[in-house]
Design brief:
Layout (H helix, E strand, L loop, with lengths): L19 E5 L4 H11 L3 E6 L19 H6 L3 E6 L4 H11 L4 E4 L3 H6 L4 H7 L4 E6 L14 H7 L2 H9 L9 H24 L3 E6 H13 L15 H4 L6 E2 L4 E4 L4 H10 L15 H6 L1 H12 L4 H10 L4 E3 L3 H5 L2 H6 L2 E6 L3 E6 L23 H7 L4 H9 L3 E2 L4
Parallel strand pairs: 1-2, 1-4, 2-3, 4-5, 5-6
Antiparallel strand pairs: 3-12, 7-8, 8-9, 10-11
């Protein structure tokens, strides 16, 4: 299943070419996971409700139902609209799943049970299926079945509280951090389950809960003294919680820098005229001393950074081989020359939305590179084709349409 570029040149198939994914996800967490599977070459069939993925309707957009967030998270997919509340719509989905490798959803378990689309239902139809459920909370805990969104999970896993310890006010991250981190975890869980299936022939159900996944993510940094029984101190990684760990103000702007190893610190001291250890505060003189006094170190460093311009610091840090970077805003990030050189942001032509710029796959592969093969689909764009490929006759397709179990908005 070799892809073909817009210029007609043949390109290698991705590593998941030949795998079929039934994607019953919406918003961001699930679509992000299935987008990655699509980038890797899987045939991702996005099953949508008659209203479509809610992110289709999030501005900005050129045309209704094609919002920017939807476009950024749904490339390399095909769309079919099935009304799963109608028996024939559910039966059509089961037929699609009977030949699929993966079925993934982020619908609450009670709703899937009402639709009779739980793991047992799907695995009965296809015992080789990897059935992946992306939930807010694990099904064995007291929070099971509760609704969950990125903001709620951030709050539950202490991220706003940690920000509040530094700034004085709890705030959510200005990125869908929980959705995307859980989506990444779902991707590698699905891939591992596929490896198991291909070794043993056994499909299985896997559950990827948002709360537990993000709790593991946060506590990996911040268990600290509570890593031990009994605790030897409070939780919290002091370096990450230092109030002066932030982009540093210079005499005319800001810069990001991290002087970390003894080698880097010694190079920095030489550059600013503090090569003699006796001339420095002893809290700066070893990694052991610095890690016990993060607040002092970051405060001292922030004051030093104010003494020179951004350009001066960029030159000095470059010469000293100390990690540093400019402080981007969104526009300068999008226009970053490195991203342009490596081709991360790719331009594609969409049949209705015109020229689009999408942040494509970041990794490079020598044999089977992920890539953008197909534009983000219009609602129901591929419904009839998907059913024909699954063995539906023209009469069966017409009957589904007449019953409004299959909806093709384009027609």
């Amino acid at each position: 299943m070799t892809g073909r570029a817009q210029d007609g040149a043949t390109k290698p198939a991705g590593p998941l070419a030949g795998f079929k994914v039934i994607d019953l996800t919406s918003v961001m967490m699930g679509p992000y996971a299935t987008m990655i599977l699509g980038d890797y070459g899987a045939d991702v069939i996005k099953v949508e409700s008659p209203d479509g993925d809610v992110m289709r309707h999030a501005a900005p957009m050129r045309h209704p139902g094609m919002g920017a967030m939807y476009l950024q998270g749904n490339r390399n997919k095909r769309s079919i609209v099935l009304d799963l509340k109608k028996p024939s719509g559910r039966e059509a989905l089961l037929r699609l799943a009977s030949s699929a490798d993966v079925f993934v959803h982020n619908v609450r378990p009670a709703a899937m049970a009402r639709l009779k689309l739980g793991a047992d239902d799907l695995l009965a139809v296809n015992p080789r299926l990897v059935y992946a459920s992306l939930h807010g909370f694990g099904e064995t805990g007291p929070y099971a079945g509760r609704p969950a969104y990125d903001d709620l999970i951030q709050g539950l896993t202490a991220l706003p509280a940690l920000t509040g310890k530094i700034t004085g006010e709890p705030r959510y991250s200005p990125a869908t951090m929980a959705d995307r981190i859980v989506g990444l975890n779902a991707t590698h869980a699905i891939l591992a389950a596929l490896i198991h299936r291909d070794r043993t022939g056994e499909g299985q159900a896997i559950e990827i809960p948002m709360f537990e996944t993000m709790a593991q993510f946060v506590l990996g940094d911040h268990m600290a003294g509570r890593s031990f029984e009994p605790p030897i101190g409070p939780p919290g990684y002091s370096r990450l919680l230092s109030p002066d760990r932030r982009p540093y103000q210079t005499s005319d702007g800001y810069i990001c820098a991290l002087v970390y190893s003894d080698k880097q610190w010694n190079a920095f001291f030489r550059k600013i005229g503090l090569e003699n250890e006796a001339d420095r505060d002893p809290r700066l003189n070893s990694i052991s001393a610095r890690t016990r006094n993060y607040d002092f170190v970051y405060d001292w460093f922030s004051k030093v950074m104010k003494t020179r311009s951004t350009a001066e610091w960029m030159k000095l840090l470059e010469e000293a081989d100390i990690p540093h970077a400019p402080l981007h805003d969104l526009d300068s990030l999008i226009d970053d020359p490195h991203l342009a050189a490596v081709g991360l942001i790719q331009s594609i032509e969409h049949p209705t939305e015109g020229a689009l710029r999408l942040a494509g796959p970041a990794a490079t592969w020598s044999k089977t590179p992920p890539r953008i093969r197909h534009h983000p689909p219009r609602l129901g764009e591929h419904g009839e084709d998907i059913l024909r490929e699954a063995g539906f006759t023209e009469d069966e397709i017409a009957r589904l349409a007449a019953e409004e179990a299959l909806i093709n908005p384009a027609s």
